[in-house]
Each structure stands twice: as C-alpha cells, then as structure tokens.
Amino acid sequence: MYNKLALLALSLRAVRAQQVGTLTPETHPTLNTQTCTASGCTTVANKVVLDANWRWTHSTSGSTNCYTGNTWDATLCPDDATCAANCALDGADYEGTYGVSASGSSLKINFVTQSAQKNVGARTYLMANDNQYQMFNLLNKEFTFDVDVSKLGCGLNGALYFVAMSADGGKAAYPNNKAGAAYGTGYCDSQCPRDLKFINGQANVDGWTPDSNSANSGTGNHGSCCDEMDIWEANSISQALTPHPCTSTGQTLCQTTACGGTDSNDTRYDSVCDPDGCDFNPFRLGNQSFYGPGKTVNTNSVFTVVTQFITADGTSTGTLSAIRRLYVQNGKVIQQSNTDVSGIDTTNEITSNFCNQEKSAFGDNTGFQTKGGLAKMGKALQNMVLVMSIWDDYAANMLWLDSDYPTTSPASSPGVARGTCATSSGTPADVESSQSSDYVTYSNIKFGTLNSTYKAS
Ligand SMILES: *[C@@H]1O[C@H](CO)[C@@H](O)[C@H](O)[C@H]1NC(C)=O
Ligand SMILES: *[C@@H]1O[C@H](CO)[C@@H](O)[C@H](O)[C@H]1NC(C)=O
Ligand SMILES: *[C@@H]1O[C@H](CO)[C@@H](O)[C@H](O)[C@H]1NC(C)=O
C-alpha cells in the first residue's frame, strides 16, 4: 500500500541502464506454473527476470559505473537522454548476487545477499519467453499460489502482485530502450515510483536526489504510474489484499509532484493513481486471531492462497464486482475472515460497497473511488504482469501492514491496528542486520477458471 521500494542495490557496481551489457550472461531461471480448467491442469514452462533497477549499469564501451551508491556518473550521465545512450544494463547472477533461485515450480527470494556487495531485496517478473512478460487477464478467473512466510518477520514484505506493465517492457514504444523485458525494464505501480533509474527509454538523472536514509536509492524528476493489484503483501504477522486503480491506461510517465505516492510525500494523492488502495487486511478489519503464527491460517507452515476475480456478468470482459479470497492449509479450505468493524457490513470479500464503507469507517482518503474504483481496476486486470518480490520500507517501516499506523493515532482508533508488530519495528537498518537471513518462497502458481486451481483433501 505504501510501496516504496527499498531497493538496495549494490554499492560497488550499482545499477541499471537502457542499452544491453554483456559482461555477465543473462540467463532467466525457469519457473513452472500451471494453467487449469475444470478438467485439470497443464504445466507451462515460464521464466523469471530480475527488474532492471537492481542491475549493474555501466558504460557501453567498458565497465565504468554509470551509477555508484546513489549517485550518477556526471560524465556518462549529464542528462536523461545522453545517459540512456551511454549506459548498459548487464546480466544478473540471480542466486549469487541477488539471492533469487528457482527450482521446478518454486521461487525463493532471500532478503539480504552478501557477495562482493550487499544486495537487499529483489523484484522479479514472470515471463512467457525470454523477451516478453507473461500477460494475464484475471477477470472471471482465479490465481493461486503456495507461500512460505514463516521466515518473514516484522518490517518485511513478501509481495506477489500484478501491475499494468507493457509485455515487452516498453521496448517497442521507446526505441532508446534496447534492453526491454529481457532485462526487466518498464516497471510501474500505483505509487508512481520515482526511484527508477530508467523510464521510457530515458534515464531519470534530471532532478535526481539521493535518499538521505538509503545508500543506494534516490528519486528523479520522473515516475512511472500504472494500475496495481496487490494479491499478497505479507509477512508472518500480517497480510493485505489491495486493488489500486489509476485513471490512466497502461504504464504512464509522470513528472515530479504530479507523481504523488510515497516518493512525493506532500502531494501523495496528486497522481493519476490511488496510492492507498482498498485494502482487506483481516487484522485491521477486526479479526486478530485469523492470520499469524499458530492462528487459523498458520504462518508457521506453507499454505495456499486463492484469489478470485468475479465479474457481474460472469465473463472475462465483464465489470469486476468482487474480489474473493480463500486459503487451503493441511487439506482444509479456509474462507477469508469476516469483517467486524462498526460501519462496515459483515463481508469477506472486496466489493464497491465494502470499499466505500471502509474508507468512511476508517476516515481514509477516497482516492480509490475517485481513481475509478473496482470497475477501473477490473478493466486493468485484463492486461497484467505478475511481480514477485521481497522488500523493506524506507518510508514507513512497513507499519501500515503489520503494526499500529499512523503511529500518532491511538491504536484503538478504527483502522489503526493492523498487526502485532511493535511501532518501533521494521526500520531498514534494524531488519537488514537482525533479519538478514529472512526469505520468502512462492510455489505452485496456478491460473485458471473459477474453482479449478484448488481442492480440499
Ligand atoms: C513525509 O511524511 C511523513 C508523515 O507525514 C513525515 O514524517 C516526513 O517527514 C515526510 N517526509 C518528507 C521528506 O517530507
Ligand atoms: C476469526 O476468524 C475465524 C475464522 O473465520 C473465526 O473462527 C473466528 O471466530 C474469528 N474471530 C473473531 C474474533 O472474529
Ligand atoms: C466456486 O465455489 C464456490 C464455493 O464452493 C461456489 O459458491 C461458486 O458458485 C463456485 N463458482 C463456480 C463458477 O464454480
């Protein structure tokens, strides 16, 4: 929800660019998924690619860093266009440098990886082939995966979500982008992030301000907006299911304060997107015994997460009317918990009525409704890219997910209590040292017609 990517990249060889570098071969890990109908599932050999922002970006002619720490090289990168021409994005050592490993139908992402440099977090995309992201139309379908959050503590977020990126990472639309999806370009989300080093075939050097609290990140004048469907933002303590619509269609560049979101603090709601979303966090919605270690959905062991996108007319082009969630653990189907909040009708699904009542009951910003609500989210869901990541939060210590937030309000105020983590938890400095061996595993991804991807046993 307050998705600021604390991407911590590499201090010595930091970054990303728009040309293609060849110093490290780019070999996309294979990840098997399944496509299902009522008559059964078939296996698909997908691949996974690391986002461009984590990659080493260096001179096309050699190996001079274009970006080091959180600063651009002034000679190679005097402005956005020159920098994109001078700099290449190189291949990734997935496991050794970034802690990303795939085996069969399972993808594991480690939080901190120490090689010659320290890497924190990672963001990956599912690919259809080596040059294209896998596109999904989620309407009238369900998306299912198994997750192991048992080693994801307070302050971390193992996020599996969809964003309206271009299938080729922007390569055709922006010919200066020679790298494309093969190198994980074209990211966008509902925070309209300004920490991206390259957007639309240009670097983001102009106006770049290194972050005061992160040695590897900064923000430039440009951001990259698009609709975002957060299927799963979670650690072992709390989790949320959150649609974030935008009024724009597809990936869209924004300028400075008009980017809103986490990177434009005082103009948070000024972008084309809804940075807050209409979140369904069982704890925040009144059931504190539903999700967590030893709870109804027991985060000490693996479980299955099923998310259904229901349309009003029961077709894959209809208006999105509800987002449903259920879980399967130890062979038992567990329905999403019911809300128990004054002012919200009892429900266990996201509908327009639920979102209206939640915003009102919690006194939250109504950007969800003004940016098009569930109906616009549904339109975007016809063309989405799957993201799997792990991150820590330099903006708000993930307290919006797993603690009392905002910390200035009493925990007893409606909507403030979101999880049992301490309000002092989740600082990046703390989690990157004390929880450096944390990880998340996503596995057994299945996509198909309603009720085809899971069963009780
Ligand atoms: C952003 O907003 C938070 C909360 O309102 C505040 O504590 C923080 O100082 C702000 N940061 C900037 C850079 O304005
Ligand atoms: C939480 O959800 C579980 C499962 O739906 C239910 O059995 C339990 O009664 C709920 N607890 C509260 C306090 O609402
Ligand atoms: C899916 O299962 C649920 C609950 O078992 C049922 O209510 C619903 O009608 C089913 N939907 C379809 C399309 O089979």
From TrEMBL:
<keyword id="KW-0119">Carbohydrate metabolism</keyword>
<dbReference type="InterPro" id="IPR013320">
    <property type="entry name" value="ConA-like_dom_sf"/>
</dbReference>
<feature type="region of interest" description="Disordered">
    <location>
        <begin position="410"/>
        <end position="434"/>
    </location>
</feature>
<dbReference type="GO" id="GO:0016162">
    <property type="term" value="F:cellulose 1,4-beta-cellobiosidase activity"/>
</dbReference>
<keyword id="KW-0326">Glycosidase</keyword>
<dbReference type="InterPro" id="IPR037019">
    <property type="entry name" value="Glyco_hydro_7_sf"/>
</dbReference>
<keyword id="KW-0624">Polysaccharide degradation</keyword>
<dbReference type="InterPro" id="IPR001722">
    <property type="entry name" value="Glyco_hydro_7"/>
</dbReference>
<dbReference type="Pfam" id="PF00840">
    <property type="entry name" value="Glyco_hydro_7"/>
</dbReference>
<keyword id="KW-0732">Signal</keyword>
<protein>
    <recommendedName>
        <fullName>Glucanase</fullName>
        <ecNumber>3.2.1.-</ecNumber>
    </recommendedName>
</protein>
<comment type="similarity">
    <text>Belongs to the glycosyl hydrolase 7 (cellulase C) family.</text>
</comment>
<feature type="compositionally biased region" description="Polar residues">
    <location>
        <begin position="421"/>
        <end position="434"/>
    </location>
</feature>
<keyword id="KW-0136">Cellulose degradation</keyword>
<dbReference type="GO" id="GO:0030245">
    <property type="term" value="P:cellulose catabolic process"/>
</dbReference>
<feature type="signal peptide">
    <location>
        <begin position="1"/>
        <end position="17"/>
    </location>
</feature>
<keyword id="KW-0378">Hydrolase</keyword>
